[in-house]
Amino acid sequence: MLEIGTQAHPRPHQDALYILLHRNQVLTEEGKQFLIPFTHFQPNANMSAVYCGKWHGQDIFVCRFESIPKGFSESGLRELLFLQDQDHYILLSRAHQLATWDRDHQFCGRCGTSMTEKHQAEHTKICPSCQLRHYPRISPCIIVSIRKDDHILLARGPQAPKDRYSNIAGFVEAGETLEQAVAREVREEVGLEITNIRYVDSQPWSFPHQLMVGFFADYKNGDIVPALGEIEDANWYSIDALPNIPNNATISGQLIHAHVAHIKAQRS
Length: 268
Hints:
About 20% of the residues lie in helices and about 35% in strands. By secondary structure, the chain is α+β, with helices and mostly antiparallel strands. It has two domains: about 1-105, Nucleoside Triphosphate Pyrophosphohydrolase, CATH 3.90.79.20; about 140-265, Nucleoside Triphosphate Pyrophosphohydrolase, CATH 3.90.79. Strands 1, 2, 3, 4, 5, 6 and 7 form a seven-stranded mixed sheet that branches. It is globular and about 60 Å long.
């Protein structure tokens, strides 16, 4: 399990393990192994390493490479995440988000000063000119499974595979509570009013830095009206006859399975 603390961050060293990235791909060894010993690759002067925490007592760093070292293959982050158990999923997600922060905050967003120095005990960069602190960006998103009797609402966006249906989801706006965001997104995307909104679970989603916050809700009123450009199809599906849904490694798949199990337990 990954340990995240506030102790001083160590510098990269030979006894640590490394997660290596090239552009938006994860570099893996045989069997899609992504935790790489120091002795298996050749670091270079341009490599930027970010401390992620301790994994079973061993320091973990994430590094970006401009070119692929010999002996490694590229794996898509989404594909690799779906192969992980929960602990490895969290580790890989954290590493990718920290590497994205490090890459995207080379200059101060307020005054434009170059920022190459990291804080020694937390993940922040402090502008040497105006002292503004730049923390890793986290974008909260809601995702909700909605029940109507023995049916749940499933929808498909324009970017999804043609046969795969999922939950309603969207970003939280400034000044909103999570529950307000749930009700607004459902209203905007499918024209429905919902009630009994309750929190279920959360999951980091590294595309590039979301935190997905999952809810259950109950149908209140309205007819399904898919939002143009946002939703291509939406419908109520019996829990006994679901279409193709997301992988259970995702919070969407987990929400759907958990909601189905909850409904079946209530009716038995």
